[in-house]
Amino acid sequence: MRRLMLLRHAKTETDAPSGRDQDRRLDERGHQDAAMTGDFIASHPPVPDLVLVSTAVRAQQTWELAFAAMKDRVPAPQVEQVPDLYAAEPMQILHQIRLAAVADPKQLLVVGHNPGLHELALALTGRGDPDARHELSRNMPTSGLAIFDFDTDDWGDVSFTRGNLVAFVTPKLLKQGSD
Questions:
Q1: Residue 49 domain-assigned?
Q2: I want to staple 11 with a disulfide (CB 3.0 to 4.6 A). Which of 17, 41, 92, 142 is the partner?
Q3: Which residues of the chain have pLDDT under 70?
């Protein structure tokens, strides 16, 4: 079995000082939400052994803050910066997931962007928790995390409609659950 986690970057500032979209940084809420999502990942093993992160500043910061929230409880995964995840279409993201077969992680986390990440999550979902499927169908907001299990030992077999959506969480859902 392989576990895939898709994490959308956290909430960002509207514009970067440089004017480049790739340079946008997380805002205060983004910092809090990324840490909350990292705490969720650490509290719900298995945790990733490999993390693929878009090279956009907001994705890098999201991973750094998420890992800071979990690092005292989980082993450090291998992390790869993947420029092709920025503004990627679903098939481009799936291609990067399949390339992970070289490292052969059991659990893989991808930190990226919408709309590609949300579209990929929808396309991968074949079955799973009905509430999670309903929430995911609506939106993948910033810091949204979709967790899939695939009944395979080969990342090359990961494909559309073959995923079991184990969980879908957002900062809003996590806050509601703690009330």
A1: no
A2: 142
A3: 178-179
